[in-house]
Amino acid sequence: MSPEIKPDFLISPEGLRVDGRRPDELRPIELKVGVLKQADGSASIRQGKTYILAAVYGPRELHPRHLTLNDRAYLRVEYRMATFSVPDRKRPAPSRREKEISMVIANALKPALFLEEYPKAVVDVFIQVIQADGGTRCAAINAASLALADAGIPMKSLVPAVAVGKADGQLLVDLGDEEDKYGQGDVPMAILPQTGEITLLQQDGFFTREELIEAMQMGINSCKYLHELQKDALKRVYVRNPEDGEDDFDDDLEADLGESEIMEDE
Predict the structure, then answer these.
(1) Structural domain contains residue 17
(2) pTM of the predicted structure, to 2 decimals
(3) How far is the CA of 243 from the CAs of 162, 239, 240, 246, 253, in angstroms?
(4) The domain containing residue 130 runs over which residues?
(5) pLDDT digit string (tens) for 22-56?
(6) Is residue 7 one of the residues assigned to a domain?
(7) CATH number, domain at 152?
(8) At what angle do helices 136-150 and 209-238 cross, to 10 degrees?
(9) What's the total number of domains in the chain?
(10) Do residues 143 and 233 touch, judged by C-beta distance below 8 A?
């Protein structure tokens, strides 16, 4: 493989990023639900060049049994990168980073789930990164949240996630691969939009107090926009068109998707 060449700039004199985006602009996003028929629930996300599949199986009997929780279901998340997902072929065995991100994703999703509805069971979430181009952990949370909803797991809310970083001294939403590699840091975050609860907040690199506050606000605004995209993706699958002879549905997600048992907090 040829050595990677650092771009001459991450932010142009006109204030645009290497891919032409404004600092507060997300990459193009495509969300789909029900993409894997063998799974109980599934979803995919294309976020820029990043492409991820998520599949949910369960609730089902938990093996090995010593992991059983008497008062709630065990949420088991496995985040894996395909060997061909990055320019330098990745080793097939799960890496330490993949295990860490699996735990991070599980912790980000748990506050949204009513796991107590399924004591002694397991809900398995399998996430496969097909192509990685930055922001995979947040994109994985977006897809996994949709897959859980598609599986009918009771939820307080969908969970949108995004990373805000810093490059050339400027805050940027939804880092691409080059910005992630050559920038000065990033702040991945996930929220429950209805309550404002933050379920994921990490920091890599140095941010001043003012920068961190501004980065979090930029992230919250982007998460709210992503939440609308998530709801739209579910509606395309579950909400029937009134012109087809079906009853109309309220715009609220809990009314639109009553069958999937998603329950938004008021």
Answers:
(1) no
(2) 0.86
(3) 36, 12, 9, 7, 20
(4) 29-241
(5) 999 999 999 999 999 999 999 999 999 999 999 99
(6) no
(7) 3.30.230.70
(8) 30
(9) 1
(10) no
